[in-house]
Amino acid sequence: MKRILILMSLVLSIAFSAQSQEKTQSREVGLFFHNLDAFGFRYKTGGENCKIRFTALFLSAGKQEITVKDSDLEPGGKKTGFGLGVGLELPVRYYD
């Protein structure tokens, strides 16, 4: 009876030890801003050493007005943009 109990406890401890050493993958979804005139949605997936970043939608807009005295010209412009992106994050640890 003692041998069976010891064997079962050994098997369970090995199973829990193997389970605790599995690599975990994280998944993140977020909204990001750049200079308050551009924003987008970002999805990240990966482990501790490497993450893949997908930017699903990136929108930007802006307006520029320049007035010149003594002239009829009023140069200026508007800009709009959108984009998709894929990136790779490789964090560098600078501490021990």
Describe what this molecule looks like in 3D.
With 96 residues, the protein is an alpha+beta fold. The chain has a domain at 25-89. The chain contains 1 helix and 4 strands. The chain has one helix spanning 2-20, and strands at residues 26-34, 38-46, 51-65, 76-89. A 4-stranded antiparallel beta sheet has the order 1-2-3-4, with no helix packed on it. A hairpin with a 4-residue loop joins strand 2 (38-46) and strand 3. The radius of gyration is 27 Å and the shape is rod-shaped. The two termini are 48 Å apart. The mean pLDDT is 75.
Which features would summarize this protein structure in a list?
1 helix, rod-shaped, 20% helix, alpha+beta, 96 residues, four-stranded antiparallel β-sheet
Question: What is the compact description of this entry?
Answer:
This protein is of the alpha+beta class and 96 residues long.
Strand and helix layout:
Layout (H helix, E strand, L loop, with lengths): L1 H19 L5 E9 L3 E9 L4 E15 L10 E14 L7
Antiparallel strand pairs: 1-2, 2-3, 3-4
What proportion strand?
over 45%
Question: For the terminal residues, how far apart are their CA atoms?
Answer: 48 Å
Low-confidence stretches: none
Mean pLDDT comes to 75
Helix count, per DSSP?
1
Protein structure class = alpha+beta
Overall geometry: rod-shaped
Oligomer: single chain
Cα Rg: 27 Å
The number of E-state strands comes to: 4
SSE order:
HEEEE
Strand order of the largest sheet: 1-2-3-4
Helix content: 10-25%
The description of the largest β-sheet is: 4 strands, antiparallel
Protein name: Outer membrane protein with beta-barrel domain
Signal peptide: 1-20
Keywords: Signal
